[in-house]
Design goal:
Blueprint lengths: L11 H5 L52 E2 L17 E2 L30 H6 L8 H8 L3 H8 L10 E7 L5 E7 L1 H13 L19 H6 L6 E6 L9 H11 L3 H11 L7 E4 L2 E4 L7 H4 L12 H8 L1 H13 L3 E5 L2 E6 L1 H5 L1 H14 L10 E4 L5 E2 L2 E2 L8 H17 L12 H15 L1 H11 L5
Antiparallel strand pairs: 1-2, 3-4, 5-9, 5-10, 6-7, 8-9, 11-12
Helix pairs in contact: 3-4, 4-8, 7-8, 11-13, 14-16, 15-16
């Protein structure tokens, strides 16, 4: 006679709906430690070994007193080795109270003890400079080791801030906070951009903040298309936090200490900035700006030389996925900072809804989100604009922008330029000259007309 059926000792409905018997017998007083749990029917069970305590080698040895070593927080290694764990050297960052850089003196290692996790082969494959310790980083940026430590440290209430905050108006209403680095930090960031950030791999679809590319080159790819779809990423730069920047740099081959130092040099909290009122510097909280309560993590500052390049590099995988998606729909794809643009024929117009759904999914899985209020589907019968450039038949400036600037120049000729600077621009003459140069770059014919009017103004 064969083994009993799985439901022989329980009710039919219990067996039918999956309520199984307790494999230990159902007694609450049963000692479960001497019997391994197995919820399979008895006929399919293999012999179980009695439970035994793990060998002592799995446990971490007690921490030696005052040896400068640590062996806690290494539980993830227990499952990979049956040997006792070797104590890890203490890499606690020591202090330099004179510069206010407590616990940062050994960040990234030294020449005598460089970061052991630096992958020189990987760095060379990407064409990036090899930075094995802070002394290498100091030599790369033209600063001293102590200056790098000081600039990478987060300020407290007693120390000076490395950033100044400024509010600028947004087209949609409200204001945006810009963080401008102080001169010494700005010089270090410019050196990092020239020697490191500018060499990071970036997708060909990215046109913003790249040499030889601009808003016009981004718009040119979408000229004369049946439909243009434009979407915008919400909080683009604030989405790249200290963790994302340092994690990206570690993935490129830099060691932990150097990645943390580089990320500290390129990210900052809004609350760490200072506001100048008269001759005094005040805390960022004196602005009472709503973003200060929402954005409390270190992020890529809007105003730092390294922020655009780092953002372009981090979203390389997203650009690859969106480019492949556009090819599936027979469309063109470009990105200018946070503006994503797709264009194509009537087939794309019919599948615009499905395309937007897939774009949302890709952007969301990359840790970003779309600003749904700025999503636009522009068909051929209406004005199609990409990064402020009209692309219906050829690249040109919009009629509204042209008429607005033309009216300002006309009033300057007739009434003088003093009363026309309604936005209180510091150098109104150069401001107008810059706007005209932008118009000439996009639409040369209209730009030349505006330049002739500018030359008639009596300054």
């Amino acid at each position: 006679m064969g083994p009993p059926l799985p439901g022989a000792n329980m009710g039919f409905f219990d067996w039918l709906f999956g309520k199984k018997k307790d494999p230990y017998g159902g007694s609450l007083k049963k000692n479960y430690a001497d019997k391994a749990y197995n919820d399979q029917p008895a006929r399919y069970q293999s012999p179980q070994k009695p439970y035994t305590q793990p060998p002592q080698a799995y446990g971490a040895a007690p921490r030696p007193a005052a040896t400068g070593e640590r062996n806690t927080g290494l539980h993830f290694r227990k499952g990979r080795s049956t040997q006792p764990l070797e104590p890890v050297k203490d890499q606690t960052i020591t202090s330099s109270a004179r510069r206010g850089t407590a616990n940062l003196a050994h960040l990234g290692g030294t020449r005598e003890a460089p970061d052991p996790h630096t992958d020189a082969v990987k760095l060379r494959s990407h064409g990036l400079p090899e930075i094995a310790h802070l002394d290498d980083l100091a030599a790369l940026t033209g600063a001293t080791r102590n200056e790098i430590i000081w600039l990478a440290s987060r300020p407290n209430w007693q120390s000076l801030s490395h950033y100044s905050l400024r509010q600028i108006a947004k087209k949609s209403g409200g204001t945006r906070l810009l963080m401008a680095p102080m001169p010494r930090l700005k010089a270090v960031q410019r050196a990092l951009h020239a020697k490191l950030v500018s060499r990071l791999p970036v997708h060909e679809a990215a046109h913003g903040f790249r040499k030889g590319r601009d808003a016009l080159s981004s718009a040119t790819a979408h000229v004369g298309k049946d439909v243009v779809i434009s979407v915008d990423i919400e909080d683009f730069f604030p989405s790249f936090t200290f963790r994302r920047v340092s994690g990206y740099l570690r993935n490129m081959g830099y060691g932990r200490g150097v990645s943390v130092a580089l990320a500290n040099l390129m990210t900052a909290r809004l609350s760490d900035g200072s506001v100048k009122e008269g001759n005094q510097w005040k805390s960022a909280h004196s602005l009472r700006h709503p973003d200060l309560a929402k954005r409390y993590h270190p992020e890529l500052p809007q105003g730092a030389p390294t922020s655009p390049g780092m953002a372009n590099a981090i979203v390389l995988r997203m650009d690859k996925r969106l480019h492949a998606l556009a090819q599936k729909f027979g469309a063109e794809y470009t990105r200018y900072a946070d503006d994503l643009t797709f264009s194509g024929n009537e087939e794309l117009a019919k599948g615009a809804g499905h395309l937007l759904q897939l774009i949302r999914q890709i952007v969301r899985t990359e840790g970003l989100r779309l600003n749904e209020k700025k999503t636009r589907i522009m068909r051929k019968g209406r004005q199609q604009r990409v990064t402020g450039v009209v692309v219906n038949e050829k690249t040109n400036v919009s009629r509204r922008d042209y008429d607005t600037l033309k009216a300002i120049l006309h009033n300057c000729i007739k009434h003088g330029p003093v009363g026309q600077n309604r936005e209180n621009v510091p150098d109104f003459r150069e401001h107008l000259r810059g706007r005209i140069a932008h118009f000439m770059h996009i639409g040369p014919e209209r730009g030349r007309k505006l330049m002739r009017m500018f030359e008639q103004i009596k300054w």
